[in-house]
C-alpha cells in the first residue's frame, strides 16, 4: 500500500510541474516574421497594452501553411527558450544601433549582431507594422524543443515532441 501511495505522489508532482511549465509558455501566430525569427533567434512585438503578456520562459510561433487563410492560426513547430527580454526600443529611431550596443556590450555582446541583423532585416522588408517601441526577445540558439514532425532524428518514446 505504501508503494502505491508513493506512486500517486510522484504522479501528482509531475502533474504540478507540468502545469507550471505550461503556464510559462506563450504561443503566438508569427505571420511573415517567422523568416526573421528562424534566421536570428530573435522575436519582437509592439510594447503596448495589446501585447501585455504574463512573464514566460518559452515561446512558440505558429505558422499557417495554408496562406489562403492569411497569417493567423497555424501549427507549432518549435518551442524556444527566452534568454533575454529586457530590450525595449523603437526600431525607427536613428540611434537604435547605439542603444543595442550600449545595452549588451558589457553583458551579452553575442546578442548584438543577432539583434541588429533582425532589426535591419525586418526594417528593410517593411515588417515593423507600427512606429512605436517594440519589446525584443532573444531566444536561445541551443535550448529548443522541436515537434516530431519537424525532427526526423528524434528517438524519444513520446511521439509529440523531442528535445534537441
Describe this structure in words.
With 164 residues, the protein is an alpha+beta fold. The protein has one domain. The chain is built from 4 helices and 6 strands, in the order H-E-H-E-E-E-H-H-E-E. It has helices at residues 2-23, 34-40, 96-104, 110-124; strands spanning 25-29, 42-46, 58-63, 75-89, 134-147, 161-163. Strands 1, 2, 3, 4, 5 and 6 form a 6-stranded mixed beta sheet that branches. The protein is globular.
Q: How far is the N terminus from the C terminus?
A: 39 Å
Largest sheet: 6 strands, mixed
Number of strand segments: 6
Order of helices and strands: HEHEEEHHEE
Radius of gyration: 19 Å
User: Which percent range describes the beta-strand content?
Assistant: 25-35%
Number of helices: 4
Whole-number mean pLDDT? 77
Structural class by helix and strand composition: alpha+beta
What's the number of domains?
Answer: 1
Tell me roughly what share of residues is in helical segments: 25-40%
Which properties best describe this structure?
single chain, six-stranded mixed β-sheet, 4 helices, disordered C terminus
Amino acid at each position: 500500500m505504501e508503494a502505491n501511495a508513493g506512486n500517486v505522489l510522484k504522479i501528482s508532482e509531475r502533474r504540478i510541474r507540468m502545469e507550471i511549465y505550461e503556464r510559462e509558455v506563450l504561443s503566438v501566430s508569427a505571420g511573415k516574421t517567422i523568416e526573421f525569427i528562424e534566421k536570428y533567434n530573435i522575436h519582437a512585438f509592439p510594447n503596448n497594452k495589446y501585447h501585455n503578456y504574463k512573464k514566460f520562459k518559452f515561446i512558440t510561433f505558429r505558422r499557417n501553411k495554408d496562406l489562403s487563410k492569411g497569417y493567423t492560426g497555424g501549427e507549432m513547430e518549435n518551442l524556444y527558450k527566452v534568454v533575454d527580454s529586457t530590450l525595449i526600443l523603437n526600431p525607427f529611431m536613428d540611434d537604435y544601433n547605439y542603444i543595442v550596443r550600449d545595452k549588451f556590450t558589457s553583458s551579452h555582446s553575442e546578442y548584438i549582431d543577432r539583434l541588429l541583423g533582425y532589426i535591419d532585416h525586418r526594417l528593410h522588408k517593411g515588417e515593423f507594422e507600427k512606429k512605436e517601441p517594440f519589446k525584443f526577445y532573444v531566444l536561445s540558439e541551443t535550448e529548443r524543443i522541436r515537434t516530431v514532425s519537424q525532427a526526423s532524428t528524434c528517438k524519444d518514446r513520446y511521439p509529440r515532441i523531442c528535445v534537441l
